[in-house]
């Protein structure tokens, strides 16, 4: 065996690394991706319920936009405290807590009966789900070396377009259950799509492992190698590795990347919450058919996300890949906005381009702050980045709703989202491309300078 390894030019250490990381991926990623898929369906399914809820509850475009976006106010307020809990109690217990509480609030959406109850339950849903995404980012810093993290994040982020691709037709079918057992179709949708989070929350403590040193499912040599590798990587981040939780909140880089994340999230959630409405303009379709049409842009994004994240890992140019993706997304949104009146089919194609750009930007971008922080400061810093970013999840749908109420124009609303994305692409590239976390090909000299 050793002779075969030598002949192939593969050292025993390389073989150990490959075998270890393959096992870690198969153990961790399927479950984490499934959890995020469910989270994304539960936060975005309100977009499919919009027309029915407006009809049943008398919501205006602005009221819908406020209710859809207020999710992120609760999310942002509880994000950093939740990440502190993650660091204090560990991944298994805290992610389980998040899952069960958000599943309860997701099913509680069936109780909405007016504007105020819509606002309250959406706010509580955001507060319940707070901390999940940065907790996963932090969890990945414990298990995956930085050189492999963009690819891992790419697989994780694929849950977003996959969730929308699967959630679109599923939500359409559930909406067509209108009147069954005395429930409206949108109530069935919230009920059925909220229960899986509760079930999986009860299973997570038995399926996740907090740290490599606790992984009894790894062989002894694999566990020792991975623990030593991650400890060495964290020690190299000298400016934050030994700092307390609050150090991550004081780091200027966390605020800069959080502000940039705000611009990216505006595009992500603005598109996600309004895409069903935009696609419905293609014709008078049933809820089920609408769901299949909405699936198309998200399905187109999935293979591109995987390819682009692997390419960013291979080249190390994370900032460049994120900027190209965000620019592509902006072009797609503008094309959809101004081609719609000429050809709905061309507009749908441009929405596919927008979805590809938006979702392929996430992994390269979020790998940048993940490469900066370690230890307790990572829990705080990544929580701050995600908190500031998710303010965009409130701002985007609310402003889009106001624009539509004022002008009745989808093109103007999409132009606003495109402007957010292109501005983020330019500023993000200028800031991060000159820094080692944004371009791994640069020397690590000065990497820890804020």
From TrEMBL:
One of its GO terms (cellular component) is plasma membrane. One of its GO terms (molecular function) is transmembrane transporter activity. The chain crosses the membrane at residues 24-42, 62-82, 94-113, 119-140, 152-174, 186-208, 254-277, 289-308, 320-340, 346-366, 373-400, 412-432. Keywords: Membrane, Transmembrane, Transmembrane helix, Transport. It is found in: Cell membrane. The keyword Transport applies. PROSITE patterns: MFS. InterPro entries: MFS, MFS_dom, MFS_trans_sf. It is a multi-pass membrane protein. Residues 28-436 form the Major facilitator superfamily (MFS) profile domain. The keyword Transport applies. It comes from the Bacteria. This is MFS transporter.
């Amino acid at each position: 065996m050793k002779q075969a390894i030598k002949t192939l030019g593969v050292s025993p250490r390389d073989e150990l690394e490959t075998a270890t990381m393959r096992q870690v991926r198969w153990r961790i990623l399927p479950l984490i991706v499934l959890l995020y898929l469910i989270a994304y369906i539960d936060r975005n399914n309100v977009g499919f319920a919009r027309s029915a809820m407006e009809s049943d509850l008398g919501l205006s475009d602005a009221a819908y936009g406020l209710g859809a976006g207020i999710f992120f106010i609760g999310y942002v307020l509880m994000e950093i405290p939740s990440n502190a809990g993650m660091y204090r109690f560990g991944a298994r217990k805290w992610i389980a807590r998040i899952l069960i509480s958000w599943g309860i609030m997701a099913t509680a959406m069936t109780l909405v009966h007016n504007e105020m109850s819509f606002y309250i339950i959406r706010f509580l849903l955001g507060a319940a789900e707070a901390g999940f995404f940065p907790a996963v980012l932090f969890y990945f810093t414990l298990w995956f070396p930085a050189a492999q993290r963009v690819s891992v994040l790419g697989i994780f982020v694929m849950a977003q377009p996959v969730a929308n691709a699967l959630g679109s037709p599923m939500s359409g079918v559930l909406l067509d259950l209108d009147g069954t057992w005395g429930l409206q179709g949108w109530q069935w949708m919230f009920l059925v799509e909220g229960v899986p989070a509760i079930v999986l929350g009860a299973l997570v403590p038995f399926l996740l492992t907090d740290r490599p040193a606790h992984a009894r499912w790894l062989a002894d040599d694999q566990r020792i190698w991975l623990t030593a590798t991650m400890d060495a990587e964290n020690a190299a981040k000298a400016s934050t590795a030994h700092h307390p939780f609050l150090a991550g909140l004081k780091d200027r880089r966390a605020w800069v990347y959080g502000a940039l994340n705000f611009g990216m999230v505006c595009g992500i959630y603005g598109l996600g919450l309004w895409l069903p409405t935009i696609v419905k303009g293609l014709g008078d379709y049933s809820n089920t058919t609408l769901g299949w049409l909405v699936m198309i842009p998200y399905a187109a994004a999935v293979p591109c996300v995987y390819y682009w994240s692997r390419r960013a890992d291979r080249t190390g140019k994370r900032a460049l890949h994120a900027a190209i993706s965000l620019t592509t997304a902006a072009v797609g949104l503008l094309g959809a906005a101004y081609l719609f009146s000429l050809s709905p089919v061309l507009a749908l194609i441009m929405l596919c381009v927008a979805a590809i750009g938006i979702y392929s930007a996430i992994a390269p971008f979020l790998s940048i702050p993940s490469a900066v922080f370690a230890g307790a400061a990572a829990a705080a810093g990544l929580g701050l980045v995600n908190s500031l970013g998710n303010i965009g999840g409130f701002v985007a749908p609310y402003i889009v709703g106001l624009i539509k109420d004022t002008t009745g124009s989808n093109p103007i609303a999409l132009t606003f989202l495109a402007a957010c994305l292109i501005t983020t692409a330019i500023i993000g590239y200028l800031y991060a491309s000159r820094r080692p976390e944004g371009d791994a090909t640069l020397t690590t000299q000065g990497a820890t300078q804020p």
